[in-house]
Task: inverse folding
């Protein structure tokens, strides 16, 4: 029973029972329902005699053939209402004859002296209850019962009307019997409703049941609280490599830790090549060290095992004031070859071109050289980007940034600067990202082959991550589990989601 998903079963029960109760109440039995409620049944004889002595002996019913004195009177107010979930039409009343009456209110041992309709939920019901509708009262001598015949009144959901009757007790003294509504509704039922002054019993039972389900889930959670989810491992995992992938990897690690608290992470994002060098030097086979890279340069590291993660979109970035909506591949090659030295040559402002590059060995640089420049750049002297930030430069300049964060900061703080980085990081830095050959940086455009600057994110381990190790667990999370959602949220496309996952093995 250790792997039995009891929490899921409890959750399903907690959802199924309210839904079933709703369907039963409002679809099965409550779809068409006519309710009635006796809102008042009060004797009036004693009160009238005390205020007006002898008045009842002088009153007579309106009928000329009756000589009965008015005594033992009571007033009854009956509410008729559509308490179901659908409309009740005239054809929905069940009757054995073709008469106009659809309902009958019986008053055992009491005669109906007079009656009136006192309240309508809307004025349109008036013509259904006028003198021509068939509403009447009568006396059934064989049963000693007064009856009010009510017409077949069409009622929308929630509609109601009230009937006030003056009754006189007939026969033996004692407590008056309760009035009773008789009739039938096709596909439904008649029922006595109650005033909604308290919580219905069914609602109390349903709430109590849900409380029990929640309590059971809490108990199960406490009992299993110390057990890590299946697939979790304990220990420490160090992740090194591409600085362009730092945000997505750290985000994935944080979410993994929310489920698997016993795995600790350490990070050193100093560039793809440095990460691969560190992994090779450590020669660690215990699955506690992995490297992340954004270009398949692992061919120079034969002892490393490579696993593809996602397709990443890269972009050219420029200073916020450098408004160049689009650049072509040919223009970028001229810029990085030194043939364009001032932005005015491309229709921009009169500013010298400042090339901000990543150091050789960077995966992002390798992607840019391969996809845009068509090969490696010639060796030229480089200046540290920290030395030129914020300066007004008199001529074209080229500097080198060790990590993505330094490149983005230099481009943001240096007028006329241009560089390249992972697209998600560039947008978060607030830099301009001009289109490439007229196509804006976009994941779907890259997958469709219309946008050229893209690469593959890879994870490397020394000789393969052994089963049950921290590296194997985290890599499985990235490729097969919720980590794919993290990759997607950062603008990349997980390899597992591609129509042709083999494309993630491409190097060009």
Result:
């Amino acid at each position: 029973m250790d792997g039995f998903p009891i929490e899921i079963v409890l959750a399903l029960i907690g959802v199924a029972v309210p839904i079933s109760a709703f369907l039963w109440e409002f679809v099965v039995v409550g779809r068409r329902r006519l309710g009635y409620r006796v809102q008042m049944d009060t004797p009036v004889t004693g009160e009238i005699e005390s205020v007006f002595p002898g008045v009842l002996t002088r009153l007579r019913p309106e009928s000329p053939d009756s000589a009965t004195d008015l005594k033992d009177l009571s007033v009854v107010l009956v509410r008729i209402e559509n308490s179901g979930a659908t409309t009740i039409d005239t054809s929905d009343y069940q009757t054995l004859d073709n008469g106009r009456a659809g309902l009958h209110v019986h008053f055992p041992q009491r005669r109906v002296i007079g009656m009136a309709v006192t309240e309508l939920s809307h004025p349109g019901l008036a013509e259904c209850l006028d003198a021509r509708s068939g509403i009447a009262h009568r006396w059934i001598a064989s049963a000693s019962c007064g009856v009010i015949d009510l017409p077949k009144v069409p009622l929308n959901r929630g509609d109601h009307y009230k009937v006030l009757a003056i009754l006189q007790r007939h026969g033996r003294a004692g407590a008056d019997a309760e009035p009773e509504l008789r009739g039938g509704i096709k596909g439904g039922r008649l029922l006595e409703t109650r005033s909604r002054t308290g919580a219905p019993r069914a609602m109390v039972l349903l709430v109590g049941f849900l409380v029990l389900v929640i309590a059971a889930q809490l108990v199960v959670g406490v009992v299993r609280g110390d057990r890590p989810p299946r697939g979790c491992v304990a220990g420490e995992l160090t992740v090194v490599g591409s600085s362009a992938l730092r945000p997505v990897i750290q985000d994935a690690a944080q979410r993994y830790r929310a489920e698997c608290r016993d795995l600790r992470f350490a990070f050193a994002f100093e560039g793809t090549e440095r990460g691969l060098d560190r992994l090779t030097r450590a020669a660690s086979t215990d699955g506690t060290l992995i490297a992340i890279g954004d270009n398949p340069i692992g061919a120079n590291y034969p002892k490393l095992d490579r696993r593809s993660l996602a397709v990443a979109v890269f972009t050219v970035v420029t200073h916020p004031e450098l408004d160049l909506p689009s650049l072509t591949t040919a223009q970028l090659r001229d810029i990085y070859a030194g043939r364009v030295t001032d932005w005015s040559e491309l229709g921009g402002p009169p500013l010298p071109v400042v090339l901000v590059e990543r150091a050789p060995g960077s995966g992002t640089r390798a992607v840019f050289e391969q996809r845009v420049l068509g090969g490696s750049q010639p060796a030229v002297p480089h200046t540290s980007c920290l030395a030129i930030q914020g300066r007004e430069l008199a001529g074209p300049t080229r500097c080198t940034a060790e990590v993505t964060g330094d490149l983005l900061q230099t481009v943001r703080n240096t007028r006329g600067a241009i560089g390249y980085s992972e697209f998600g990081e560039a947008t978060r830095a607030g830099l301009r990202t001009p289109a490439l050959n007229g196509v804006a940086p976009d994941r779907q455009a890259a997958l469709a082959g219309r946008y050229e600057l893209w690469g593959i994110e890879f994870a490397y381990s020394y000789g393969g991550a052994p089963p049950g190790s921290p590296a194997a667990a985290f890599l499985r999370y990235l490729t097969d589990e919720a980590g794919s959602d993290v990759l997607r949220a950062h603008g990349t496309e997980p390899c597992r989601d591609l129509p042709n996952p083999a494309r993630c093995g491409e190097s060009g």
Notes: The first strand starts at residue 33 and ends at 43. The radius of gyration is 42 Å. The chain has 13 helices and 21 strands.
